[in-house]
Design a protein that fits this description.
Length: about 375
Amino acid sequence: MPPARKTIGLREVRVGLFVLIAVVVLIVLILNASGDISFKSKKHLRVKFASAEGLRKGAEVRLAGVRVGRVDDVQLLPPSDDPNAPRVEANISVDSTVDGKPITDLIRTDSTAQLVAPSLLGSDKIITVTMGTSNGQPVQENAELRSTTEGGMAQLTASGNQLVDQLNKLSEQMTGITTKINQGQGTIGRFVNDEAFYDNLNLTVRETQDLLRQIRSGNGTAGQLVNNPALYNNVERMTASLQEISDNLNRGRGTAGKLLTDDALYNETRSTVARLNRTADELNSIMADIRAGRGTAGKLLTDEALYNDARSAIARFNTTAERVDNIVAGIQRGEGSAGKLLYDDQLYNNVNQLSSETVKLIYDFRQNPKKYLTIKFSIF
């Protein structure tokens, strides 16, 4: 018995066609979502970069943060003699319309493209395009956009290394200065390490404190000025006198009061101001004549011979200044009498000793003033 032949009905054909169409639509939707296929019209543009590190085919192209396209291809450019010339060209395609607006209204000739990393940890890069302005023109098909560089982690690391190097150099310099100070070198080193200077300073502070205590107690001229009530009374009387003088001035009494309140003086002052204005006009006329080179003063300002003489005088002054600079440089090197006065350690020790002896003399004078103020008077 021959096998029965299975027939396919119309229902099975419809189901199969429906499944096939559904699979095709699903594939198209997946490709459209991934960006591999799109039914929108595209505009193709080009961007050149010095390096395309992290940029791959299919990477996003964003306009002000909004995804508008993808990278179609990344190509190496021919070698160039210019070390700063771009090395890589990226071909991108963007949607012809974004939010119902033509892409040429958003991307214009003054727009720029930049390679950026969407995250700090990721190595992949995308291309971001800035919005154009009214100063630019609409971009054409296959137009080239200007590119800019982004300060990435490498540049930040390089800047940090430079900062660390500078801090290390500064630390070495500060260490050297601190070492010299600890060794007693230089003025600051002597101030820090010289015990005689500390003793003299301490003694001066104690003497100052004693002087302040005497002033508070009313001893001496300064103490009288601070503590004597009569001085306060005199100042109060003086203030009252000044107030009386001010009242007399306000009432127009006396010569000074008349100067402030007399109308005739006001009128004379106005006439004087008018004369001053006429004098100012005459001075303006004189200045105009001087600028025009008329008269003696005008010739002094416009005569080229005088200008040449002034230039020669300035040249001689510059020569003299150079000589003075040489003398100052010699002094700084410790040459000559003046240089030894500034840099001779023996002179510093002598001055320090003189300061110590002076303090001792003042202290001895305060302890026994009769020893220095006793005057012997004899006729025969």
